[in-house]
Amino acid sequence: MLNPPLSKKTLFFAAMMLIVLVASIGYWQHLQTDHNTKINQPQLPTKDPTAPITPLKPIANLDPKVVSLGQQLFFDKRLSKDNSLSCASCHNLQTGGDDNMPKSVGINGQIGALNAPTVFNTAYNIRQFWDGRAKSLEEQAQGPIHNPVEMGSNWQEVISKLTFDKAFIKQYKQSFSLPISAQNLAFALATFERSLVLVDSPFDRWLKGDVNAISGQAKRGYEKFKSYGCIACHQGAAVGGGLFEKIGTLNDYFADRGGNITPADLGRYNLTGEEDQRHEFKVPSLRTASMTAPYFHDGSVWQLREASAKMGWYQLGIKLTPEDIGDIEVFIQSLAGKIPPLEKTP
Question: In angstroms, how far is the first alpha carbon of the chain from the final one?
Answer without folding.
Answer: 113
